[in-house]
Amino acid sequence: MSLSPSIVERINRARADLRMGVPVVLTGEGGGVLVVAAEVLDAARLAELRLLGGTPVLAVTAHRAATLKTPAYDGDVARLRIPADASVPWIRALADPADDLRAPMKGPLLAERAGPAALHRAAIGLVKSAELLPAALVLGLDRPLAVAADNSLTVIDMAAAGPMLLRATPVHPVVSARLPMAAAEAGRLHVFRPEDGGTEHYAIEIGQPARDRPVLARLHSACFTGDVMGSLKCDCGPQLRAALAQMGAGGAGVLLYLNQEGRGIGLANKMRAYSLQDQGFDTVEANHRLGFDDDERDFRLGSSLLRRMGFSAVRLLTNNPNKVAMLAANGVEVVERVPLRVGEGRHNAAYLATKAAKSGHLL
Ligand SMILES: Nc1nc2c(ncn2[C@@H]2O[C@H](COP(=O)(O)OP(=O)(O)OP(=O)(O)O)[C@@H](O)[C@H]2O)c(=O)[nH]1
Ligand SMILES: [Zn+2]
């Protein structure tokens, strides 16, 4: 076995680089490109990047391009040309909708149509998976490997990385220990670690549920604001507590606490979405203006964890039919959907109505 990092490990290293503002080199169809996450771009790096020659573009999603009133010629992606005199705040404003209403962008923005966009799409995928705004400054390189070597940059070969990014990351148990809780004294917390070095996820097992019968289960996505701070903007905190209480009362259950904050966009982006909601956009529109899909979660994770724990059938506490469908599609039978309607109030009524109207949540 080699001591050098595998492709999966290099992808994770690239995520860390991108979060710090360090460029990453992607190679594949169309040669090679240098990528910097727009959110953390600074003037010094932009100046260095310009010295390499060529015209950088900002790769954004079609959702963000629609907000910027620019056509997305590459389907789900648009490549916006960055003028030679563009400043860092100007580039950031293309990526970040915070000031869209106060200072509408001065157009017209020019989008590239020629050439492949596969590496641009990959760049967006990488910055997104690093929980940054989905926008990347991308510069085509004539000699990508030489630029990477000269500057000690991480290189990701997309031919090797692509399949890795598409598959569900395997998760492995790390430790478990007894955890008596107010809702259930017979609790146990299991920690699972993904193989790609990403965030750990937790399972709370209540009682000793039989593995050969459907278990009362909940897939709960992390919500720091609701679960911990008691936010009234969503129903997550009351749902978490009600699910544990129901499992405690019945003597058995399993609650997966999945670290997919903000439907998979991370807390910083969720707070950006909240700020847009204060400007009048609903939860789905806010995600789109930021450049995200409505829901960026990978629900395959829930089925992997359940199967890893030996469960193959569940009675699922949820109002979200996508969770039911994704479990079924990934080898966990949902014998019953158990509705979980709690915590509705003045501050979250519109949020819940939008989820029902636009995201298919059941009332
Ligand atoms: N992006 C975004 N995420 C939000 C917002 N409000 C809550 N969330 C996140 O939405 C997720 C809600 O998770 P869950 O309660 O497990 O899922 P759900 O899709 O509502 O389905 P059920 O509760 O099972 O019916 C959490 O990750 C929250 O952090 C919002 O306005 N924007
Ligand atoms: Zn919440």
Descriptive report:
With 363 residues, the protein is α/β, with parallel strands linked by helices. The protein is built from 15 helices and 13 strands. The chain has a seven-stranded mixed beta sheet with strand order 7-8-9-11-10-12-13, sandwiched between helices. The protein has a six-stranded mixed beta sheet with strand order 4-3-5-2-1-6. Helix 11 crosses helix 12. The protein is globular and about 65 Å long. The termini are far apart. The model has no long low-confidence stretch (mean pLDDT 94). The structure holds guanosine-5'-triphosphate and zinc ion. The site of zinc ion has 5 residues, from helix 8. The site of zinc ion (ZN) has 5 residues, from helix 8.
Set down the secondary structure blueprint.
Blueprint: H1 7-20, E1 24-28, E2 31-37, H2 43-51, E3 57-61, H3 62-67, E4 77-81, H4 88-95, H5 118-129, E5 135-141, H6 144-151, E6 155-157, H7 158-166, E7 171-178, E8 187-194, E9 201-206, E10 215-221, H8 224-228, H9 236-250, E11 253-258, H10 261-264, H11 267-277, H12 283-290, H13 300-308, E12 313-317, H14 321-329, E13 333-338, H15 349-358
Parallel strand pairs: 1-6, 10-11, 10-12, 12-13
Antiparallel strand pairs: 1-2, 2-5, 3-4, 3-5, 7-8, 8-9, 9-11
Helix pairs in contact: 11-12
This protein binds guanosine-5'-triphosphate (GTP) and zinc ion.
The site of guanosine-5'-triphosphate (GTP) has 21 residues, from strand 10, helix 9, helix 10, helix 11 and helix 12.
Short summary of the structure?
With 363 residues, the protein is of the alpha/beta class. It has 15 helices and 13 strands. The protein is globular.
